[in-house]
Amino acid sequence: MSESERAPYSAAAWGIGWGVFLVSGFAASVLLSNAWHDCDTGVNASANLGSLVLASTSMAAASTLVWALTRRVTGRRRLLWPLLLTTAGAAVLLWPLMALWHAPDGYPVTFCPPDNVPRWWPAWLPV
Predict the structure, then answer these.
(1) What DSSP character marks residue 127?
(2) Whole-model pTM?
(3) d(Cα 103, Cα 108) in Å, to the nearest integer?
(4) Average pLDDT of 22-31?
């Protein structure tokens, strides 16, 4: 067993792990909430809450899994590389989240026709 595998998990690693979970879940919920608000998707905010919680929790869990995997691959004593890789991975994970959860084609929205994509979404990044 290598020294890295025997090293205990530090409080900083646990704190960063919780931070990754909370920040990525919050970022996903803000992104989807703004997209739904701008495109007038759903009945009202409380009706969208269940889908928003499910989407943001899945994003938070996926990015936390990326954090754990990068910590395992790079060694438990390192924090900077896993944090940078997790941040990049979470940014990449936001694209499929938006592609799956934004207003789908054919959904009757009045503010984002014809493809139901918000105006602020980059045109070079398809959803």
Answers:
(1) -
(2) 0.79
(3) 9
(4) 92
